[in-house]
Design brief:
Blueprint: H1 20-88, E1 100-106, E2 112-118, H2 120-145, H3 151-160, H4 167-171, E3 175-177, E4 183-185, H5 187-196, H6 198-205, H7 210-223, H8 232-236, H9 238-247, H10 249-258, H11 260-267
Antiparallel strand pairs: 1-2, 3-4
Helix pairs in contact: 1-2, 1-7, 1-9, 1-10, 2-3, 5-6
Length: about 270
């Protein structure tokens, strides 16, 4: 008489010619084996369902992080591109008369308050530089804050943070460079340089200067856009492969095994 295999199956067709008692014993053994297997399968399915749910949650978080990163990247590059384009060809030759006006007031205690006002042209020139500096600093911060995301982002953090090597040149017109490459403005010094040496300001900040350099950085960053944020497999590593195994074919097979008893029940 045929025996029962590890899954409760019948080894060969000789079972068909066995005695009724032998058949009864075989069926009982088969059904017992199936019952044990079904319990294990049900437990495994519950575990796999949890793995599947966790995987979906992790991938959803990954998608959210990637979407947020890409959205901020595009906005940061777009803003800087617009302000760099304006600064690149800006005409810093302002009307000297009334460009900078300084007034002083003394209160009853002898304290002197000095107020500086700028003409419309001078204020427009200063605002153009300020807007660029704000957008440039946003780019420096974005890449600096996200440099651990990937090697490519780290490279861009270094690229946008390279303003320091021209620090003395920028300082000469009123821009100070910090250790991370961000810029700050000495408004009084910048206004004075615009008034007295506009060509110098144009040379340092224009198409052959900081604005042109920023555009080069932007072009390089945009060329890397699709590769900056790592793929899910790269970020999650072997854990993603393991989860995929237990939520793919294995998951479907376990479901099929757990229903095998229905077929056996119909046979008998």
């Amino acid at each position: 008489m045929a025996g029962i295999n590890s899954l409760g199956g019948i080894n060969n067709y000789s079972w068909l010619f066995a005695s009724n008692n032998q058949k009864k014993n075989s069926i009982n053994q088969l059904w017992s084996a199936y019952g044990n297997f079904q319990n294990n399968a049900t437990s495994s399915l519950a575990g796999l369902t949890e793995v599947n749910s966790n995987l979906k949650s992790v991938l959803a978080s990954y998608d959210d992080a990637k979407s947020a990163f890409q959205s901020e990247f595009k906005e940061t590059m777009s803003d800087l591109s617009a302000s760099a384009a304006k600064l690149k060809d800006y005409n810093f030759n302002v009307e000297k008369e009334g460009a900078i006006t300084t007034t002083s007031e003394t209160d009853k205690d002898g304290n002197v308050t000095t107020t500086t006002t700028y003409s419309k042209d001078m204020q427009a020139a200063l605002d153009t530089v300020k807007n660029f500096v704000d957008d440039y600093n946003s780019a420096v911060k974005f890449f600096g804050d996200n440099k651990d995301v990937s090697k490519r982002v780290e490279l861009l953090a270094n690229t946008f943070g390279d303003a320091g090597y021209r620090a003395s040149l920028y300082e000469s017109i009123g821009l100070t460079t910090s250790s991370n490459g961000s810029l700050s403005i000495n408004e009084a010094k910048l206004a004075d340089t615009i008034l007295n040496d506009p060509d110098k300001v144009s040379s340092i900040l224009g198409k052959d200067g900081l604005a042109g350099k920023a555009e080069s950085h932007i072009s390089f960053a945009n060329s890397q856009a699709d590769s900056l944020f790592p793929a899910a497999k790269e970020m999650l590593g072997d854990q993603l492969d393991t989860a995929a195994v237990y939520t793919g074919k294995a998951y479907r097979n376990m479901a099929a095994y757990s229903n095998m008893g229905n077929l056996i029940n119909m046979m008998f």
